[in-house]
Write a structure and sequence with these properties.
By secondary structure, this protein is mostly helical. The chain has six helices and no strands. The longest helix has 19 residues.
Length: 114
């Protein structure tokens, strides 16, 4: 995640939204096997969606695919699949956002070292 945060140039809010999206999918679809490559794919597609949903400026999917270590076609397919799994519900309530923000800021979290 630190690599994605460094090279995607996205806001901290997008990192939090990414965590929310991935967590929603994992909770709703417990049959998804969580292996390192699965995590990479979920984080890459989740971050791409979060940036498009939240940030005013974003790059192309080709750029995000390169940063995330994915093929462009795979990222495009993952993005569509994740949107479908989330039922296009990308909005995160402020209370839910704060829970995940606190997780990321605690020691050992993605931004906890800052």
């Amino acid at each position: 995640v630190a690599h994605l945060a460094k090279y995607c140039g996205c806001s901290d809010e997008c990192l939090i939204l990414t965590l929310v999206y991935v967590d929603r999918i994992i909770k709703q679809h417990r049959d998804i096997a969580m292996a390192p490559l699965t995590c990479q794919r979920l984080l890459g597609a989740g971050l791409t969606m979060a940036v498009k949903f939240h940030d005013d400026q974003n790059y192309t999917n080709a750029y995000y695919a390169q940063v995330c270590g994915l093929e462009l076609l795979e990222l495009n397919n993952l993005e569509v699949t994740m949107l479908r799994l989330l039922k296009h519900r990308l909005f995160v309530r402020p209370e839910e956002f704060e829970v995940y923000r606190a997780m990321l800021l605690q020691p050992g979290g993605v931004r906890g070292h800052a």
